[in-house]
Design brief:
Elements: E1 3-9, E2 18-24, E3 31-40, H1 43-49, E4 66-73, E5 85-88, E6 91-93, H2 99-102, E7 114-115, E8 134-138, E9 143-144, H3 151-154, H4 160-170, E10 178-182, H5 186-198, E11 201-206, H6 212-218, E12 222-225, H7 229-234, E13 239-244, H8 252-256, E14 259-267, H9 280-283, E15 288-291, H10 297-310, E16 316-319, H11 324-332, E17 339-343
Length: 347
């Protein structure tokens, strides 16, 4: 039997979110029913609600940074029990048969992974995200949140955490490596924390020095303003890895000039408009311009365990669900330090 739950949804593109009700599917053999306790607000929620990344499905219940407690399990569930602390990230299913899926990279499923919201499940029904009281998820796409991380600061790890952890690990951030993080926002602040915990020397590159004290407290060794042209002169050829977390247009040629020979500029922010690039910025110095999209389920669990081991959680501002539209505007104004999290008890 389906369950009717309260949620916050955008009824149409660019419309304010409003309280409504949705139907959650009957708990199947391998499903877990999760009482959502906290849901992070990611900038990608705003992109999708406002169709910045293309045509979307409405009504839309956003939210792919979900933390809660298992309240029911299907008859075939083996990974979880009622009362377990769990999380759900950006995807809730994949084909599970293609090469990426079989290698633990479900995010790159060749048939397309099923997004936690603004997607269509294998049952043909639209998926609804975490701005809701409950969610039903297959146990294979449910993560265990370790003890030692409170659920409110753990919620953003399900997107912001894995989005920065995966490329930092892939590109070898660690002792002896110099890593720059572009932007100190919801993604960037986790990038700084994780890169520091991995043992890298960390520099923040931000438009201004307004958040310098915060950046240093989060684990950065250095902090520079990109609005100062001297920054690009002083830091030329300095970094092994640059992690760009911003969704605004930037001068990629200028940032590539900050890399050492063989260095990589990795993008996890996703501007809505195409970029232009002079390829000599890559050819000179044998440099790489790359992208990264979250991580697989196993790597996401690895990230959660790593964060618990190192005492890492997101810096959050807890809000009531009725404040979600105001929060969206504040995200666009860069007026949050550093992640809004909805208290699902207020939905």
């Amino acid at each position: 039997m389906t369950t009717t739950v309260a949620a916050y949804a955008a009824p149409s593109a660019k419309a304010p979110l409003e309280r409504t009700t949705i139907e959650r599917r009957t708990v199947g053999e391998h499903d877990v029913l999760i009482d959502v306790q906290y849901a992070g607000i990611c900038h990608s929620d705003i992109h999708q609600v406002r169709e910045g990344w293309g045509e979307a499905i409405f009504p839309m219940v956003p939210g792919h940074e979900i933390a809660g407690v298992v309240s029911e399990v299907g008859s075939g569930v083996t990974k979880f029990e009622v009362g377990d602390r769990v999380g759900v990230g950006c995807m809730v299913d994949s084909c599970r048969e293609c090469e990426p899926c079989l290698s633990g990279q479900e995010q790159h499923c060749l048939r397309g992974n099923v997004g936690t919201y603004n997607s269509v499940g294998k049952d043909g029904e639209p998926t609804y995200g975490g701005y809701s009281q409950k969610v039903v998820v297959d146990e294979a796409f449910t993560l265990r949140i370790p003890e030692g991380i409170s659920l409110d600061v753990a919620a953003p790890l399900l997107c912001a955490g894995i989005t920065t952890y995966s490329p930092l690990k892939h590109w070898g951030a660690g002792p002896g490596k110099k890593v720059a993080v572009v932007g100190l926002g919801g993604l960037g602040h986790m990038g700084v924390k994780i890169a520091h915990a991995l043992g890298a020397e960390v520099t923040v590159l931000s438009q201004s020095l307004r958040k310098k004290d915060d950046g240093l407290k989060l684990g950065a060794d250095h902090y520079y303003a990109t609005s100062d042209p001297k920054t690009f002169e002083e830091l030329a050829g300095s970094f092994d890895v640059i992690l760009s977390t911003v969704s605004a247009q930037v001068d990629f040629g200028a940032y590539l000039g900050l890399l050492k020979t063989g260095g990589a500029l990795v993008n996890v922010g996703a501007p809505e408009e195409p970029i232009s690039l002079n390829l000599f910025s890559l050819i000179g110095g044998n440099k790489t311009l790359a992208g990264s999209m979250i991580g697989g389920i196993a790597e996401t669990q690895e990230m959660l365990d790593f964060c618990a081991e190192h005492g890492l959680g997101a810096e959050i501002e807890l809000i009531e669900a009725s404040q979600v539209n105001e929060a969206y505007e504040r995200v666009l104004d860069s007026d949050v330090r550093y992640r809004f999290v909805i208290d699902a008890a207020t939905i």
